[in-house]
Design goal:
about 325 residues; alpha/beta; TIM Barrel; 8-stranded parallel beta sheet; two-stranded antiparallel ribbon; 12 helices; 10 strands
Length: about 325
């Protein structure tokens, strides 16, 4: 049987979320965490990316003990799951962003994270939680931040990779939201320059544009996915897919603008009821597309939309995807 694409892991948010209340992680008991891990193992997840809120996690107590991330990494150690951990940094880093200020913050958080968690066998790399939209405007400044952050990580853990997870936008200009449209070839040029400068090890591309709209098709997404894959090939960067498991249901960008206004932010609570899990048939299409370029696929949205304990819709979607694993092999 030929190799088929499946999802190899999940991004698990340890901080603020627009879709799961902020206390969710901290309410779960050890038994409930064991159940969460068991469900992910049934889906053949072998990677977890713990992102955002690492500083808060280090400072807060949880039902499983004084340090939730330490507990989770211990579970990853025991189960043979590899973990990528956020470097911390400022939660609102993009507000009046300067690379100098953010790098100063990382000088504090990166060594502390390494001291507290770097000894875990499962600690397999670093994640820079700066989801950016370029090519124009921020190239120089974000390149300075990326390069400095990579240098700080490598000084402590020279053998561990550093990952970013950027996004792109299909053309919504003049229709909805405030994103300027850039052509795929502009992404190739900008990311070739940025990856050359910053020496990022892994680029984990969000696979459905920055706003998760269900109306974006494979035809919309393919030129951008190909652009990022090209930039990675040119710079020797490993290219992974960040497959979105949640989407905002809309027939078109025009329909979204008509319902909520042209300046709508898809994270606005007023459109929360329009979000839901990606249907399994559509998920298979998305996986087939990204896997034609990617080395490995992780997923955003499992915790938020695909956990079988989240809702009946999520349970059924997860069951259908799990059944599909019987005929599909991991990358």
């Amino acid at each position: 049987m030929s190799r088929q694409p499946v999802i190899s892991g999940a991004l698990w948010n340890l901080g603020h979320s627009n879709f799961v209340d902020d206390e969710f992680n901290y309410r779960l008991t050890a038994a409930e965490w064991q159940e969460q891990f068991a469900r992910m193992e049934e889906l053949e997840f072998r990677w977890l990316l713990f992102f955002m809120g690492v500083k808060e996690c280090m400072a807060r107590s949880a039902a499983v003990g004084p340090d939730l991330l330490d507990y989770l990494l211990s579970e990853c150690d025991r189960r043979g799951i590899r973990a990528l951990v956020s470097v911390g940094g400022s939660n609102l880093w993009w507000k009046d962003f300067t690379p100098e200020r953010e790098l100063k913050e990382l000088e504090r958080t990166i060594p502390e994270i390494d001291r507290r968690y770097g000894w875990h066998p499962s600690f397999a790399g670093w994640y820079l939680p700066y989801e950016i939209f370029i090519p124009h405007g921020w190239c120089g400044r974000i390149g300075q931040l990326y390069r400095g952050a990579v240098e700080q990580c490598k000084a402590l853990t020279p053998d561990l990779p550093v990952m970013v997870s950027p996004f792109y936008m299909p053309d919504t200009s003049g229709k909805v939201m405030d994103f300027v449209h850039f052509k795929p070839e502009e992404y190739v040029a900008a990311w070739t320059e940025l990856l050359t400068e910053a020496r990022i090890d892994i680029l984990l591309l969000q696979d459905n544009g920055g706003q998760h709209l269900s109306c974006f098709t494979d035809a919309d997404n393919r030129p951008y996915i190909e652009a990022f894959a090209t930039a990675c090939r040119r710079t020797g960067t490993r290219f992974w897919g960040n497959v979105e498991l949640g989407e905002l249901k809309t027939a078109s960008v025009e329909a979204l603008a008509a319902k909520y206004g042209p300046k709508i932010d898809v994270n606005n609570p007023i459109c929360r009821s329009d979000w839901g899990p990606v249907p399994p048939a559509r998920l298979r299409e998305k996986l087939d597309l990204i896997a034609s370029y990617s080395e490995l696929n992780l997923s955003w949205g499992y915790r938020e939309f695909y956990r079988p304990d989240r809702s009946e819709e999520s349970r059924l979607a997860c069951l259908e995807y799990r059944s599909d694993l019987r005929t599909r092999r991991p990358l």
